[in-house]
Prior knowledge:
Layout: E1 6-7, H1 11-16, E2 19-24, E3 27-33, H2 38-47, E4 50-53, E5 58-63, H3 67-74, E6 87-93, E7 99-109, E8 112-117, H4 122-131, E9 139-142, E10 147-153, H5 157-162, E11 177-182, E12 185-190, E13 199-205, H6 209-219, E14 226-228, H7 230-238, H8 274-283, E15 287-294, E16 305-308, E17 311-321, E18 328-335, E19 344-349, E20 352-359, H9 367-370
Parallel strand pairs: 1-3, 4-14
Antiparallel strand pairs: 2-3, 4-10, 5-8, 5-9, 6-7, 7-8, 10-13, 11-12, 12-13, 15-18, 15-20, 16-17, 16-19, 17-18, 19-20
Helix pairs in contact: 2-7
Amino acid sequence: MAEELKRTALYDEHLRLHGRIVPFAGWELPVQYDDLGPTVEHNAVRTAAGLFDIDHMGQVEVRGPGALPFLQLIQVGDVSDMAVLDARYSLMCYADGGIVDDIFVYRLGEQRWWVVVNASNRAKDVAWMQAHAAGFDVEIEDLSDRTYMLALQGPKAQQILQRLTPADLAALPFHTGLETTVAGVPTVLGATGYTGEYGYELFFPVEQAVTIWNTLLEAGKEDGLLPCGLAARDSLRFEPCLPLYGHEIDQETDPLSARLGWAVSFSKGDFVGRDALLKIKLEGPAKLLVGFEMVDKGVPRPEYPVAVDGAVAGRVTTGMKSPTTGRFVGLAYVPASHSKLGSEIDIVIRDQPKKAVVVKRPFYVAAYRRK
């Protein structure tokens, strides 16, 4: 029996905007709008702004006197130095170092935290957290069904959102948050996102989804704000080489091999997966995630084999013609011995090896990060 797909509260709005609906992680979501193609939406985010319905993501509140030591155990980063309203990327790992999920952690109070998880992993993540809660004075509550989540991203995101909130957005540093109102609606606002551009993620009561969505689109209409679907979301996160669960990371990969060792704190004390990750760090990963650019003509696609010296030695995790740079680039796992810049590899496209070369990541850096 086929799984019944879920719909967000904006489903009818997506249809009204001529969104092409596709199944994704158990949800019916727009892959693009109108017939302009996802590249138009992608470029809007790079030059102006884009609005994304990301309510398929999960939001879990962790609260109580034991919240901090609990979070220190179940995820790889040291969050003890996070001030109230800070936000930080992290990962949860199994004991063998495989990745349960990558997450964003928000500290909303001394004993109140939010953990944002991926759509396809929501049930698994909540169960994982609850399974490790024994012995901690902590409450874990899945808020996903009553909290709505939107992302407003791009160089004009701040000026658009500032028209609708009393918060001083210019004083909100990247990877922090605050509790405010947007169009009069109580909102947790994070200076976060997954497009490589500066922007915001908004959390508010699900009953206000249509109001906030349409108010934002109207407020940004003259600035070039567009609604954006899954295709643009993927290409936008790919260019700055931000990992996606099920592609660059999963239970078979570890943070060090995925080049996410910067998110792991071995000095904070014990956490689930520490011993396995420390072993990988000391011995060195057998494989590493690299960026590559095609030398021969061809478009790299996810799951295409990667060959080294004529033998298959890895796989492409994400690949495409980069809309912003025009380059045919990809991400792939290769043996550590072939991970240095300039190393030659082959991408096997329709049973034919096509030459590629390992290049510097990320493929794109936003203007605000170049300063």
